[in-house]
Amino acid sequence: MTAQIINGKAIAETTLTETKSLIDKRLAKGLRAPTLAVILLGADPASAIYVRNKRLACEKTGIRSLAYDLPASTSEAELLALIDKLNHDDEVDGILVQSPFPAHIEEKKIIETISASKDVDGFHAYNIGRLAVRQPTLRSCTPYGVIKLLQSTGIKLLGLDAVVVGVSNHVGRPMALELLLAGCTVTSCHRHTKSLQSHIERADIVVAAAGKPHLVKGEWIKPGAVVIDIGINRLADGSLCGDVEFATAKERAGWITPVPGGVGPMTVATLMQNTLTALELRESSLIPA
Ligand code: GUN
Predict the structure, then answer these.
(1) Which of 46, 83, 90, 120 maximizes the CB count within 10 A of its CB?
(2) What digits encode the pLDDT tens for the residues 37-54?
(3) Angstrom distance (rounded) from CA 208 to CA 166
(4) Which of 101, 121, 263 for a ligand 1 pocket mutation test, highest count of atoms within 8 Å of Cβ?
(5) Predicted local confidence at residue 1, as pLDDT
(6) pLDDT above 90 covers what percent of the chain?
(7) Measured between alpha carbons, how far is 86 from 120 in angstroms, rounded to an integer?
(8) Pocket mutation for ligand 1, best pick of 41, 54, 95, 98 (most atoms within 8 Å of C-beta)
(9) What is the 96 CA–ligand 1 centroid distance (Å)?
(10) CA distances from 138 to 185, 220, 225, 272 (A)
């Protein structure tokens, strides 16, 4: 069997077009466009590319983008003061601070300071908690994007065995919650898991989010399984690869995402959708400030 490729780039474009059309409808009614503030600290080249893609997606969808490109030496107090100002600005709907952060800034403190109602990354404990109790509001972008990729295959998720590799706060944990919400039987694997192989071998859905190149071997994939690779790792020769051995996994899986061009574009598209959702939720007072 050779897997069908899940074209994340194309599916992301559809999501962007849908979001743009909803924003155009608002504008036609005389309502304002959503606004996203993106804060970048320092000059990490990978972060600069991610942020550029987010700002380009704002342009494409008609979201007003506020750029805060700050030096890596920005103090935690200065960053917290900026977030506080944006939290209180009624014209700002989404606030995102691109990670990784400089070592002197505590990420947890920054995430918890961003108002839950403007947390378009879906990282705040409030938003993760909403997902956990089956009342999602602002959903973590990458996991929610993965759900849309899974839905694009037309496969019914209810009752499927899903294995998530990786338990990070931003990706692995909300991913497991999203799959649970979709009715899957979910297993989370991590560094203490006794036999990763034995879990992968019985999975109908494998979501790899460990950040370890080629951790998931192609020969472990159950024939016909859906394989979603969230990992994006740079090898010594400069090339990019995922957490899954793509070439061999592709020969066994039913569906598979490529790296790059799979999950990455969906994260950005979902961020745009979340920014519009944040504005709508605040307008309808459905989310506490
Ligand atoms: N760094 C890498 N991916 C992300 C993301 O989705 N959001 C933020 N804030 N930082 C990131």
Answers:
(1) 120
(2) 999 999 999 999 999 999
(3) 7
(4) 121
(5) 76
(6) 98
(7) 13
(8) 98
(9) 8
(10) 23, 34, 29, 11
Beta-bridge mates of residue 244: 216
Q: Is the Cβ atom of 121 under 6 angstroms away from ligand 1?
A: yes
What gap in Å lies between CA 70 and CA 60, rounded to an integer?
24
The pTM of this model reads 0.96
Q: Please, is 208 exposed, middle or buried when counting C-beta atoms within 10 Å of its C-beta (0-12, 13-18, 19+)?
A: buried
Q: Distance, CA 89 to ligand 1 centroid (Å)?
A: 22
Smallest CA-to-CA distance from 141 within 206, 241, 53, 203 is with 53
Instruction: Number of helices (H) and strands (E) in the chain: give both, helices first.
Output: 10, 11
Give the residue carrying structure tokens 């960053």.
79
Q: Which residues contact 89 (CB under 8 A, 6 or more apart)?
A: none
Is the torsion defined by CA of 108, 110, 115, 116 positive or negative? negative
Beta bridge partners of 205: 162, 226
Ligand 1 centroid to 219 CA: how many Å? Answer: 31
Is the confidence at residue 289, as pLDDT, over 70? no
CA 106 from centre of chain: 21
For the chain, the average pLDDT equals: 97
When pLDDT is averaged across residues 96-103 and rounded to a whole number, the result is: 96
Between CA 287 and CA 111 the distance in angstroms is: 17
